[in-house]
């Protein structure tokens, strides 16, 4: 297997017979950078390389579909360090995606309809309110790799996770555990704790946490599969994140799904950091259930409408534990006879009418995804993040330690098929000052305890020149941070 090749994943078996996601061979990002530098007769870190990469980027025009924050509008900015009229370096799409320009238009359409015709808006227009969520389902299918009947757009992520676990987690005296990462996102951790408590189970015995090996940041696939093989008979549900929020590790979902189901476990994923970031094939992989938010890579705005997936194989066997009016078949919903005709599958899990204003913002973003396609976005993302990785390693890797006081480590896996667009950086000096200096210079990223700064160049609206500018600002920020640390140590 060429572990560093790049393209959309295909399912193949490795030498151990494990199902893995292996891309088709393409030129490696580092080789692309070096090839272009050779053509231009310049150093690979030269600005001309970034500009050429942008020229060759067939997706570059999608940046125009989004509002890019200006330097002058960012609260922590130091205007003495930047050009206030320039666009910020926004590498925080892993936390909150940027606003599509069509959001305002779609919101105004529904507000105008409400103002002019009141309740008639439930039945007319491009997004009749009574089926507002259903009108955009078709735009989600390719993003998660499922058919419309397997997808519901509703609620928030953790609400959906609770609704799904209430139906999929049915513990027995022999099979009562839930398997998850030890450092899962707190929301998932809390949800699982509360589900176990709801069933009167001992959390320490029933919550099976899997940790990376000593001295390692990420989980090895073989360790995950070993736990499943050895303890699978006592595990009821496996719930992993598709892509880890802190490390940026992309888990091998088809392999985990296959291994779990072979042991009789139900397998689900929290796709908050995977959806809109990497290619997903939930139906093909046979994943039992999944849920996701829409405000990160799906750009639907803070608190955006979340999603849920239930594989069609469960449509008539897994039913919602909590039922509402919108889980009733539309054709007889308004008979009001209180005789439930439950919609099979995930749409039976819907409880309330869709929030049409949230539908609008998600609609605007999903239309862009339909035009760009996940396949093309993933291909660009591999090169974009690979270029960022190349630049960081050139300037800050361990072998530069003699000339640079600060060493920058990338804890996100280096293998393309083990990550999305995010790189998580750790440092040989405290990150507090580094982060402050980045913010002053208009770099929008975030820090996460214990020692990580997450940077995520998003292929829909970030450019290769963004990466080039980021590196220069990063160098400046580190220099200033090092100076402050020295001054602080002298003063104390």
Q: What do these coordinates show?
A:
The protein is of the alpha/beta class. The chain has two domains: 29-87 and 374-491, Aspartate Aminotransferase, domain 1, CATH 3.90.1150.10; 103-372, 3-Layer(aba) Sandwich (Aspartate Aminotransferase, domain 2). It is built from 15 helices and 15 strands. The strands form four sheets. The protein has a seven-stranded mixed β-sheet with strand order 4-10-9-8-7-5-6, sandwiched between helices. It has a four-stranded antiparallel β-sheet with strand order 11-12-15-14, with helices on one face. It has a two-stranded antiparallel sheet with strand order 1-2. Strand 8, helix 10 (282-285) and strand 9 form a beta-alpha-beta unit. Residues 1-10 and 12-24 have low confidence and may be disordered. It comes from Tursiops truncatus. It holds the Pfam family KYNU_C.
Number of strands: 15
Give start-end ranges of low-pLDDT stretches: 1-10, 12-24
Q: What summary fits the major beta sheet?
A: 7 strands, mixed
**Can you tell me the number of structural domains?**
2
CATH evolutionary superfamily of the largest domain: Type I PLP-dependent aspartate aminotransferase-like (Major domain)
Tell me, briefly, the overall form: globular
Distance between the termini: 54 Å
The sequence of SSEs as H and E is EEHHEHHEHEHHEHEHEHEEHHHEEHEEEH
| CATH fold-type name of the largest domain | Aspartate Aminotransferase, domain 2
Name the CATH class of the largest domain. Alpha Beta
Helix content: 25-40%
CATH architecture field of the largest domain: 3-Layer(aba) Sandwich
Q: Give the count of helical stretches.
A: 15
What does the average pLDDT come to?
A: 93
Beta-strand content bin: 5-15%
Q: Please tell me how large the radius of gyration is.
A: 24 Å
Looking across the biggest beta sheet, what order are the strands in?
4-10-9-8-7-5-6
Structural class: alpha/beta
């Amino acid at each position: 297997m060429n572990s560093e090749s790049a393209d959309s994943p295909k399912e193949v078996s490795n030498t151990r017979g494990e199902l893995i996601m292996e891309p088709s061979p393409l030129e490696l990002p580092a080789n692309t950078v070096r090839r272009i530098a050779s053509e231009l007769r310049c150093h690979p870190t030269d600005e001309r390389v970034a500009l050429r990469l942008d020229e060759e980027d067939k997706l570059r025009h999608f940046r125009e579909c989004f509002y890019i924050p200006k330097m002058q509008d960012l609260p922590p900015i130091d205007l003495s360090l930047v050009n206030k009229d320039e666009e910020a370096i926004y590498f925080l799409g892993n936390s909150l995606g940027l606003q599509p320009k069509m959001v305002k238009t779609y919101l105004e359409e529904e507000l105008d309809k409400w103002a002019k015709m009141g309740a008639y808006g439930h039945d007319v227009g491009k997004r009749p309110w009574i089926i507002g969520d259903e009108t955009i389902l078709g735009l989600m299918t390719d993003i998660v790799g499922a058919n419309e009947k397997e997808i519901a757009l509703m609620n928030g992520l953790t609400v959906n996770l609770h609704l799904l676990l209430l139906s999929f987690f049915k513990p027995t005296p022999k099979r009562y555990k839930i398997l998850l990462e030890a450092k899962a996102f707190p929301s998932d951790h809390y949800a699982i704790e509360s589900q176990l408590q709801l069933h009167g189970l001992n959390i320490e015995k029933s919550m099976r946490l899997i940790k990376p090996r000593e001295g390692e940041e990420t989980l090895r696939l073989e360790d995950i599969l070993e736990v499943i093989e050895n303890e699978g008979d006592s595990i009821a549900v496996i719930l992993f994140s598709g892509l880890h929020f802190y490390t940026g590790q992309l888990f091998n979902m088809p392999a985990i799904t296959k291994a779990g189901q072979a042991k009789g476990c139900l397998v689900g994923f929290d796709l908050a950091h995977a959806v809109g970031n990497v290619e997903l094939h939930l139906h093909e992989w046979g994943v039992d259930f999944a849920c996701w938010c829409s405000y990160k890579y799906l750009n639907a705005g803070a608190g955006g409408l979340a999603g849920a997936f239930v594989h069609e194989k469960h449509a008539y066997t897994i039913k919602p534990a909590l039922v509402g009016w919108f889980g009733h078949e539309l054709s007889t919903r308004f008979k009001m006879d209180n005789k439930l005709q439950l919609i099979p599958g995930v749409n039976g899990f819907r409880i309330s009418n869709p929030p049409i204003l949230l539908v609008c913002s998600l609609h605007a973003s999903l239309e862009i995804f339909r035009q760009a396609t996940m396949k093309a976005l993933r291909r660009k993302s591999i090169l974009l993040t690979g270029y960022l990785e190349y630049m960081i390693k050139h300037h800050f890797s361990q072998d530069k330690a003699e000339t640079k006081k600060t060493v920058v480590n990338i804890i996100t896996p280096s293998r393309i098929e083990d990550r999305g667009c995010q790189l998580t950086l750790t440092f040989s000096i405290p990150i507090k000052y580094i982060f402050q200096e980045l913010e002053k210079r208009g770099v929008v990223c975030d820090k996460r305890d214990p020692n990580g700064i997450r940077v995520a160049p998003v292929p829909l609206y970030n450019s290769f020149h963004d990466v080039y500018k980021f590196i220069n600002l990063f160098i400046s920020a580190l220099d200033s941070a090092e100076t402050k640390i020295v001054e602080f140590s002298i003063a104390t």
